[in-house]
Amino acid sequence: MDNSGIYVGLDIGTTSIKVVIAEYIKNQMNIIGYGNTRSAGLNRGVIVDIDQVVLAIKNAVKQAEEKASRSITEVSVGVPANLLAIERCKGIIAVGNDDGSSREITDDDVRKVTEASLVHNLPPERAVIDIIPDEFIVDGFNGIKDPRGMVGVRMEMNGVKYTGPKTILHNIKKCVQKAGLRVRDLVVAPLALANIALSDGEQDFGAILVDLGGGQTTAAVIHDHKLKYTYVDQEGGNFVTRDISVVLNTSLENAELLKQNYGFADATMASDEERFPVKVVGKQEPMMITEKHLAEIIEARMRQIFEKLAADLNHIHALNLPGGVVITGGLASLPGVAELAAKILGVHVSIYTPQEMNLRIPAYSQVIGIVDYITRESEINQIVRHTVDGTYPTIAANKVETMTNEPQINTSTREDFAETEDDIELKSGWLAGLKKKLTDLFNGDDQ
């Protein structure tokens, strides 16, 4: 499939709004424009003032357009992990002719089976963001990734459904529309980020992706190339800045500069000899403090963030996954973050930094991930997603035979998928045992 073209990603974060314009040609993505403005109108990742967010989006878009020397009309927007729910879904339809004979499966059938998986009623306050198909089953033959062109009389689809609060989704779309743009896609942000920040092996055997943002800390547990669990902590880089401001009696602007220019997350890495001036409120002369003192202020908050994260992830045995922890986001640029996290979490920790020219900054990981996710999406996944978001005409699922849904997996309940037999069957030997062990990690609460 040729996905060549211009793609635009939009990341509406608590502390900043970022836009990236990318050109995708011959399976190569080149960023040709980007913008970044300070957020306004958001609280803990949730839009609370639409007009302020609209203005910030316009400013970021204008920056990106000027760098790219082109105007944009549509964007792919990341949906944050706040109140994200994950559940298994299944749809079954008849695809045969009226006389019972088989016929060739088309795009239309894929849309119908997707709609069959949506028959299950959601709570009125929630809406489906996306469905990722795991497999299609045609006349009992499973493991099919793309059934189009095959012949059959019955087709099933097993997949994963992501839902979010209607209020959050509506406000995101409203802000984009009021900014004069069209929402091309809604993308589950942790999924998009995992696709670029984790290797294929880490996504397969399991890893934890931690996004240290300014407004909050988000963790996503990835296993079998699926998003299994999300964790959100409302403490992020802003809390570190406020701690510096309060302890040193300096302005938030000065505190942010101190964090960026002299800060260490791990106090053992800072110097007792290195000193620098700090502007103190109410005093003419600056106060001299050591690098070590500033690092101790920062480490106190960072330690609290990682300790809460460790407690939550230990509850679902996620820290036993072989991929360890990968950290990205704005606060990942702080020296000593990986070292402090490794001490507290007790696993291997690495930092992910995008390798795009001029944007080798962890703070841009999420918005780059959104663009990359859309450019690499398969045609069958596009059909499914656009059926969910209503881009394609609604098709009455009048041939639905049965539809079942397994219990919802919510971040507050810490439940996990009931893996299918095909998920845990590997060819032989030690690999099968390892695969089974990893699957069982998420079922520890039930045993």
Automatic annotation (TrEMBL):
Cell compartments where the protein resides: Cell membrane
Keyword Membrane: yes
Keyword ATP-binding carried by entry: no
Membrane topology qualifier: Peripheral membrane protein
SUPFAM superfamilies in the record: Actin-like ATPase domain
An annotated GO BP: cell division
CDD domains named among the record's database cross-references: ASKHA_NBD_FtsA
Keywords: Cell cycle, Cell division, Cell membrane, Membrane
Assigned protein family: Belongs to the FtsA/MreB family.
Assembly description: Self-interacts. Interacts with FtsZ.
HAMAP family with a match to the protein in the record: FtsA (MF_02033)
Name of the protein in its database record: Cell division protein FtsA
Biological classification of the source: Bacteria, Bacillati, Bacillota, Bacilli, Lactobacillales
Primary gene name: ftsA
